[in-house]
From TrEMBL:
The keyword Phosphoprotein applies. Residues 4-84 form the Carrier domain. It comes from the Bacteria. It comes from Streptomyces longisporus. Keywords: Phosphopantetheine, Phosphoprotein. The lineage of its organism: Bacteria, Bacillati, Actinomycetota, Actinomycetes, Kitasatosporales. The keyword Kinase does not apply. InterPro entries: ACP-like_sf (IPR036736), PP-bd_ACP (IPR009081), Ppantetheine_attach_site (IPR006162). This is Acyl carrier protein.
Length: 84
């Protein structure tokens, strides 16, 4: 397990936790908003919860309020790298 969440992992988590199927390419190229993708606040909370279980550490409070996948990845990966 890596200490960084990839676009591929986020796409997998979106499908598992929020029921939204999206390709990693769609996330990486266009940086659409979570709302555009159909991920609501509960779906994003599910993704955050899954990551907290996976890594055994709380994710940043702002993670569940991220507007885009890129913003989410930047925030979560920064926290994981600093051990926060």
């Amino acid at each position: 397990m890596s200490d960084r969440i990839t676009v591929e992992e986020l796409a997998e988590l979106m499908k598992k936790s929020a029921g939204v199927t999206v390709t990693p390419e769609e996330l990486g190229l266009h940086n659409p908003g979570f709302d555009t993708l159909g991920v609501d606040s509960l779906g994003l909370l599910g993704i955050v919860g899954e990551l907290e279980n996976r890594y055994g550490t709380p994710m940043p409070a702002d993670a569940e309020r991220s507007k885009t996948p890129r913003q989410f990845l930047d925030l979560v990966n920064s926290a994981l790298m600093t051990g926060a």
